[in-house]
Amino acid sequence: MKSKLLIFLLPVFLFSIFFLGSAINDYPGNIDRSSAQTNSRSNSDILSVSQPLQIDAACTYSWSAQTSGTANQFFSVSAASDQVGWAAGVTATVRKTVNGGAAWTDGNSTPGIITGDIYNVNALDASTAFVTTSPGATFIYRTINGGVTWTQVFTQAGGFIDAIQMISATEGYAMGDPVGGKWTILKTIDGGVTWARMATEPVQVGAEAGWNNSFLIIGTHIWFGTNTTRVYHSTDLGLTWSSGATTGTLNTYALHFNSTTEGLAGGSAAATPLVKTIDGGSTYSQTATYPGTTGNLDGLEGNGIDWWAIRSGTTVYRSQDQGATWPAGLQYVQAGAVFQDIDLTGSGCVSGWAVGNAGVIARMSASSTPSNLILTINFEACSSTDAISVELRSSASPYSIIETASGTGGLGTSQNIAFSNASDATPYYIVVRHRNSIETWSSVTAGFTAGALSYNFTTSASQAYGNNEVLVGSNYSLYTGDVNQNGIVDLTDLIAVFNDATSFVSGYVATDLNCDNLVTLTDVLYDYNNVSLFVERKRP
Question: Model-level pTM?
Answer without folding.
Answer: 0.66
